[in-house]
Amino acid sequence: MLNNNIFKKYSQLYSISICVLTFFIIQLCTGCKKNNIPENPGVKYAVGFGMKYTGNGDKLITDGDKRELHLSRNEPEAKNSRNFKIPSKKTISCTTPASALINALDETDKTIGVNIEKKYWYIDGVVKGLDNGSIKNVGTDAASLNYEILFSIQPDLVLMSNNDNFKMFSKLDEMDIPVAVFHDFLEKHPLGQAEWIKFIAAFYDKEKEANELFRRIEKNILNIKTQMSGVTKKPDVMWGTVYMKKAYFAGGDSFVSRLIDMTGGKYVFSDNKSAGDFNTSMEEFYLRGKEADIFISPTTKQHGTNSIDKLLTHSIVLKEFKSIKEGKVWCYQPWYWQSLDKVDEIVEDVAAILHPEMYPDHKLRYFDKLEWEHAM
Predict the structure, then answer these.
(1) How many percent of the chain have pLDDT more than 70?
(2) What whole-number distance in Å separates Cα of residue 337 and Cα of residue 95?
(3) Mean pLDDT for the chain overall
């Protein structure tokens, strides 16, 4: 009988302990949801930015210019170009690839300014915003800003592709406007480019959504890479442009070089050490590119290069190129730079260009084939 009483007493204590523990777990989880503190999504491929999360909701982000940015839910103690109040509600985007990622995260309605004319936009939300006035044009082109308009709307985030225009960057710094530098084009891998969605997500507390989108893109690209790994005949590819008798090409340590490699091709400048673009002599351009099977020019028909004939006006030596003679020349669609959230589809397009026999029914979405106006 005594043993039974002891057993009942311990059973009751055990039940009470479980209830108390459950209560505290529920309260803890509720607190987490209430605080809505996102977790650091981590960086797997990108080399152009870094992320540190403090655990109290603040974030320390290293941007494309290696500047450390402080993102906080509270008003910054010191107002300057590196302190940000999040989530961002008033964004100015001076880079179309960043706008593509903002759109993918369903945050385009937070954009209040751009510095590119409406006729060059292919993101519906931006076009509509420019039409109805919710988005203002704060500049005349990609390298200028109207500081009077910018100061009047007081953005909490300005996204720039670089700070080469020192005067413009210094002016924003002087005005204490929060600026983040966005450098996806210097990444060494297509998935490094795609991973910049995590950088953008940090300003909107959209880490969960960014992770989901990135995982989908990663899966698709790795599937394509696996599919193309068995290819034995790899075409030589030239990816660049000639303008005013000068040759400009993607470096051998760039995302372009790795994109060509993973889609079953050989890049003619793969031994170059540059991660970005570089220019080379016409002599080297001729020697490297003459026998290339495929020529991809990072231009668009809307910007003048609308035929192979037009391409030849920049350099007569192109007439001797195998890719030109066989009509295997492609350029970008005008919305290419506004499709960073579709990197997997861009990779698939390149795979279809390099190996059409493996993609017989594929329709290109981000590239356009150049044709002859007049036969050679």
Answers:
(1) 88
(2) 9
(3) 87
